[in-house]
Design a protein that fits this description.
CATH topology of the largest domain: Rossmann fold
Organism: Methylobacterium oxalidis
Strand order of the largest sheet: 2-1-3-5-6-4
Number of domains: 2
InterPro entries: Aminoacid_DH-like_N_sf (IPR046346), NAD(P)-bd_dom_sf (IPR036291), Shikimate_DH (IPR011342), Shikimate_DH-bd_N (IPR013708), Shikimate_DH_fam (IPR022893), Shikm_DH/Glu-tRNA_Rdtase (IPR006151)
Largest sheet: 6 strands, mixed
GO cellular component, one term: cytosol
CATH class of the largest domain: Alpha Beta
Structural class: alpha/beta
EC number: 1.1.1.25
Radius of gyration: 19 Å
GO molecular function: NADP binding; shikimate 3-dehydrogenase (NADP+) activity
Helix content: 25-40%
Length: about 280
């Protein structure tokens, strides 16, 4: 029986077992996927012991993504570029491969939600809000998708400037105060900050200047409809929630561990949405 995991600290909040165990059941695969709570000071030993653990690999979440990047024996080019690992795969030779599936997960969700031609319809330009780990994955994903202009805004300008190297010649850091002037030329607005998340203040940004062809994406999925997305829908703009990124980033790992590439379906999404609702 093949086994996989999601490791973090804390880990009780993770919805990953719901996703992967749903796929195991749908496809009749004899396997398991479980939560593992591993403290930071024990994580290095955990990774080193993986080849003899019986696990095919697993997902990595907060606070271990950067440590997994340092500890993996081999890195995919995308993981090297982003500087963080969210997926570990134990190879047949016992070496541990580190990958980052957040970037393709974000893009796959955009493609599914907006249609594969969204870069052309939105003018090939994006404005990314935030400069943390999620923003790194989003910028890399947008660059790989072929966007010609990616603007990055953060309240700490130096952090935004540090992300420009992820997409040379395409990405540019901009001032947070300049957002109102930048919106008219924006085809895709992406919020990667915690603003709008449950327990956090909303993102205070007037979407009025956005063109009618623009789309708005938020990586926050609790709540599923953030104030930013509600404002986008009120304006008649295409709105993309954060849950799809979580679902799509899980696909490559499942394929590597269990030998079958699953689909992100409405049934799966409904199961996770039901779990997100307050009891």
């Amino acid at each position: 029986m093949k086994r996989a995991f999601v490791v973090g600290h804390p880990i009780a909040h993770s919805r990953s077992p719901l996703i992967h165990n749903h796929w195991l059941g749908v496809h009749g695969i004899a396997g398991s996927y479980e939560r593992l709570d591993v403290a930071p000071d024990a994580f290095a030993d955990f990774v080193r012991a993986l080849p003899g653990s019986g696990y095919a690999g697993g997902n990595v979440t907060i606070p271990h993504k950067e440590a997994a990047f340092r500890l993996a024996d081999v890195l995919t080019p995308r993981a090297e570029r982003i500087g963080a690992v969210n997926t570990l795969v134990v190879g047949p030779d016992g070496r541990v491969l580190g990958d980052n599936t957040d970037a393709p997960g974000f893009i796959a969700h955009l493609d599914q939600s907006l249609g594969a031609d969204w870069p052309e319809r939105t003018g090939g330009s994006a404005l990314v809000l935030g400069a943390g780990g999620a923003a790194r994955a989003v910028v890399v994903g947008l660059a790989e998708r072929g966007l010609g202009r990616i603007l990055i805004a953060n309240r700490t300008p130096e952090r935004a400037a540090a992300l420009v190297a992820l997409a040379p010649g395409v990405a540019r850091a901009v001032a947070w105060d300049a957002l109102p002037d930048l919106l008219p030329g924006t085809g895709l607005l992406v919020n990667t900050t915690s603003l709008g998340m449950a327990g956090h203040p909303p993102l205070a940004l007037d979407l009025g200047p956005l063109p009618g062809r623009a789309a708005v994406a938020d990586i926050v999925y609790a709540p599923l409809e953030t104030p930013l997305l509600a404002a986008a829908r009120a304006r008649g703009l295409a709105a993309v929630d954060g849950l799809g990124m979580l679902l799509h980033q899980a696909v490559p790992g499942f394929a590597a561990w269990f030998g079958l590439r699953p689909a992100v379906t409405e049934d799966l999404r409904a199961r996770i949405v039901a779990d997100l609702r307050p009891a």
